[in-house]
């Protein structure tokens, strides 16, 4: 989201009093917005002028998103985490995750509530989809996450904002290993107790052969 600001050329022409007023207004504007901001400058050159005009742009970043791939046995899930970077509360609705490749053999089944959710300041909300396929998993998955948002306060809900989008790609998401762990009590004891030395058993089973890229990055047998 963009916060308009005066150009530098216009600011340079103001007197000392107007400069102070402009500085206070800009600081108040950022405080009222309460979001993480990114300042950029754009230089405009006109063929009929020897001077360049510098325009200062301030972009507000309300959210940050990241994704992860979860695996439980033969089931796979795509998780998207949305973090509220601002001091404002937003209302989230109409979340969706689409596969841009339009693979008919693959389905993304949402496991999220259909109702609207409120994301508070500095809070993170997780969205999860289960991967279901009929034949074989594709080599890569190009995803586009989208969620509509608006300020949670009633007086600002009339604002029209574009949905927040996050595009990412997942590759080589085949399950290579199955990991199982178990803790055993000491010999002759029935339960594990605090202060007693217990044994941890880890079982790693390879499910499929490694690809050429994975073979290059995998550890050698001696390691």
TrEMBL record:
Coiled coil: none annotated. Residues 10-20 have a biased composition (Basic and acidic residues). InterPro entries: TRAPPC10/Trs130. It comes from the Eukaryota. One of its GO terms (cellular component) is cytosol. GO terms for biological process: early endosome to Golgi transport; intra-Golgi vesicle-mediated transport. Residues 1-30 are annotated as: Disordered. This is Trafficking protein particle complex subunit 10. The lineage of its organism: Eukaryota, Metazoa, Chordata, Craniata, Vertebrata.
